[in-house]
Amino acid sequence: MSAASVFSRIQETLGPLAACKISTETRMDIETSPERLLQAVTVFRGLNWGFLSAITGLDSTGAAAAQPGAGPASPATPPAGALAAAAGSAPADGHLDVLYHFCQGPSVATFRVRLPREHPAVPSIGAVVPSAVLFERELSEMLGVEVAGLPKGKRQFLSDDWPQGVHPLRKDFSIETAAPVADSAPAVGSDEPPGTFIVPIGPQHPALKEPGHFEFAVDGEIVTGASVRLGYVHRGIEKGAEDRSWVQTLYLVERICGICSHIHATAYALGVEALAGMAVPPRAQAIRTIVCELERIHSHLLWLGVAAHEAGFDTLFMYSWRDRETVMDLLEQLTGNRVNYSVNLLGGVKYDIDAAAADSIRRGLDYLEGRSKHYLKIVTTDESFLRRTRNVGTISREQSERLGTVGPTARASGVTIDLRAAAPYAAYGEFPITPVVDEKCDQEARFVVRVKELFECFRVIRRILDRMPAGDLSIPAPRKVAEGEVISRVEAPRGELFYYLRSTGGVKPDRVKVRTPSLCNWAAVVNVVVGQKLADVPVILAGIDPCFSCNDRSLTLRRRGRPGSESVEAWSWEDLRAYGIRYYGGGRR
Amino acid sequence: MADEKSPSVTAEAAAAPVKLPGAFRKALDRVALWSRINSPWLVHFNSGSCNGCDIEILATLAPRWDLERFGVKLWGSPRHADVLVCTGPVTRLARERLVRVYEQMPAPKFVVAIGSCGITGGVFHGCYNIVGDIGEVIPVDVYVPGCPPRPEAIIDGVVQLLTKLKPPKPKRAAKAAAGSGDANATSGGGGGAA
Fold first, then answer.
1. How far apart are CA A316 and CA A530, in angstroms?
2. pLDDT of residue B128
3. Tens of pLDDT along B64-88?
4. Which pLDDT belongs to residue A582?
5. How many angstroms separate the first and last alpha carbons of chain A?
6. What is the DSSP pairing of strand B73-74 with strand B41-46?
7. CB-CB: which of A236, A251, A549 is closest to B127?
8. How far apart are CA A568 and CA B40, in angstroms?
9. Residue in A with minimal Cα distance to B104
10. Which of A99, A448, A487, B144 keeps 20 to 30 A from A472, CA to CA?
11. How confident is the model over B80-132, as pLDDT tens digits?
12. What residue segments make up the domains of chain B, in order of their start?
């Protein structure tokens, strides 16, 4: 079904609930009110179209203030505590917008809800769309939108000494007035039932190189509850982007994640180029695509090693990391750096691939192809390894779709979801890719999908090298970017990466919203470990290729108390900390 | 019976620690320092990094660089580690945990900060959730610049630290060694900015 016919069907179905506006071939805006939102989303979900890709919160005060005749300064949010000064300069007539982006293939349908700055509130759509809870949590903390139906007062990804009522993505927030760091967070009581045996892991722990705190409630060897507290590497990049120019932000977003740095920069650059109406030379797009695929090879080999290490197969870790150096050498040869290659410019790329570089890439790929065949054989035939992966951590296709997983995690559950094929960007239009899907849904399938994807990478890189378009590497980018908004979605090594960019016509972005693939996959993994053996937990965690640095914003807890009674609750840092102190039997830090 | 005896034994031990003869103690210290320099155990903590430095630290353990052949071991527990290898700017939430990891390490302990973010906050300087660089939170002995530094640079940073720990050569420093008496004097406390 074409996007246009889908959109008209959505329009018919929603009827009087919302005002639909089709802006481009692939985008539709659905304006509704907070009162009608839940009903509209419920009706919309009845169509069984798309998945909730992200929720973006916008503070339109900046835009309003830029217009002549904007209202005089008056405190718009009731300030709390030490940050009172922050609210002084906000015009009272500003408003907030909440955007719910549902995506399928290249099409995006966006529900837009406009809210007043004072006491903004929306209903939670978590009952209809379970994966929305994470995004709503982020919305309530970052913009102070009250989401009815979410537990109140629980800190998720801001630190615990962050003052109440201060929301960093509001336009009237400023870093100068942010509260000083308290020496220690206040400890509060916890309501953990006595007798539950909890295994706490992290945030500093030997298995994963990034900080994340996990707690597993166990009954013997079986996990009965799992919680994760992230936020240790939350840096405030979305707000930081608003203080930087369009070009500076390119280098900031590149450092959201060091493993998939290029894809972040590519998503951002593609978005800005679309906003500014720049026609990027085809050679630049081809080079971008080659680096995207080289990065995918490096990321998948890295994952293969780490995941094998979690299963106790250190030999495979060492071999795959040895072979990964081949692709690191290629990246260094092309760009001068092993990580954070900085290939992209707004309007093109910095580095060319000449005949000599193309030859060394081909040689490297030949070697890696032979090795990948070997790895595919290992992960599908090694008996002792299969005992750790076969029928372990199964995420069924239904679960996968319901919980909104993306990328190789979803593809290993039989869901064909790959933006490179569904909505080609950069040079994927001319050099198409075939999604690799596996129906087995278990840990083995995740190994198979990722290793098989390597062969697709090799194939598409060779094809681009053989038919490299001639021409310039870049075109000049304007200092100011035309007013408007754009959604840029690309397929990162871990799944769909979502960027929402808004410009008010200035030298700086008005809003940069990033939704990274790991955030989508967390919900699935926390659900799936319940009922598994504790010893399998590291393997399952590694299965989604978790990346903390890009998704650090949330906490979820799923507990299976008595058989049949399942509830979702959330723990704040205070809870976890108090629990930790009690657990270790002392108050000494 | 054991209940009555054991408290008095521990109290005694606490009141009067075993006194070793000076020469014996010096020899033990020398052995400890020798083993520390030749086989330092590292513990890694990411206090807000983008992963770039972390994967390069891991790469130093992979076959191409293979740090373990020099006796260097990346270890999970801070309680067994000599050197804290730290990456990233320090976020508000990670700050307390970084201090806690540092405090759990036995003295003498050392800190190597990897990457530009650890030096100045790097590209994240000014972001609201950044407390500052690593040196603002715990004392740092060696900074390794780069975004991210190459694995060779990370190894060099650790080697620089170990070189700093080495006691002065006997020939040149015969007099100085006779005066100081404590082999750990060069390393004690790790930076001293605490």
1. 28
2. 85
3. 998 888 888 888 888 999 999 999 9
4. 74
5. 60
6. parallel
7. A236
8. 44
9. A589
10. A487
11. 999 999 999 998 888 888 999 999 999 889 999 999 999 998 888 888 888 88
12. 39-165
Rounded Cα–Cα distance for residues B29 and A450 (Å) = 51
Supply the pLDDT for residue B172. Answer: 56
For each successive 10 residues of chain A (589 residues), what is the average pLDDT? Answer: 77 81 85 89 86 88 43 34 35 78 90 89 87 83 84 64 79 69 45 64 67 76 76 81 91 89 94 93 95 95 90 91 94 92 92 94 96 94 91 88 88 92 92 93 92 95 94 92 92 92 92 87 79 83 70 40 43 72 61
Q: What's the CA gap between A173 and A179, in Å, rounded?
A: 11
Contact B55 A209 (CB under 8 A): yes
Q: CA-CA distance, B103 to B138, in Å (whole number)? A: 10
Domains (ranges, CATH) in chain A? 3-64+93-177 (3.30.460.80), 197-233+520-584 (no CATH), 237-490 (1.10.645.10)
The H or E element spanning position B161 is helix B151-165
CB-CB contact of A51 with A400 (8 Å): no
Specify the pLDDT at position A142.
84
Angle in degrees, CA A424, A239, A571, rounded to 5: 95
Q: Using CA atoms, how far apart are residues A523 and A556, in angstroms rounded to an integer?
A: 7
Helix (H, G, I), strand (E, B) or coil at B84: strand
Residues 125-154 in B contacting A (C-alpha not used; CB under 8 Å)? 126-131, 147-148, 150
Point out the residue among B52, B62, B94 whose CB comes nearest to the CB of A321: B62
Contact criterion met (CB below 8 Å) for A44 and A15:
no
Contact predicate A437/A415, CB 8 Å? yes
B residues 65-94 near A, CB within 8 Å?
A: 75-78, 88-89, 91-94
Across the interface, whether the CB atoms of A236 and B130 are under 8 A apart is answered yes
CA-nearest residue of chain A to B56? A339
Here the tokens at position B118 are: 């650890």
Domain B39-165 CATH (choose: 3.90.1150.10, 2.60.120.920, 3.40.50.12280, 3.80.10.10): 3.40.50.12280
Q: Would you say residue B58 has pLDDT above 60?
A: yes
* End-to-end CA, chain B: 45
Q: What is the nearest CA distance from B58 to chain A, expressed in angstroms?
A: 8
Question: Is A175–B131 a contact, with Cβ atoms under 8 angstroms apart?
Answer: no
Q: Give B-chain residues touching A162 at CB under 8 angstroms.
A: 92
Q: Which chain A residue's Cα is nearest to B150?
A: A338
What is the C-alpha separation between B47 and B130, in angstroms, rounded? Answer: 10
Who among B45, B101, B127 is closest to A239 (CB)? B127
Higher pLDDT, A231 or B166: B166
> Whose structure tokens read 């299963």?
A311
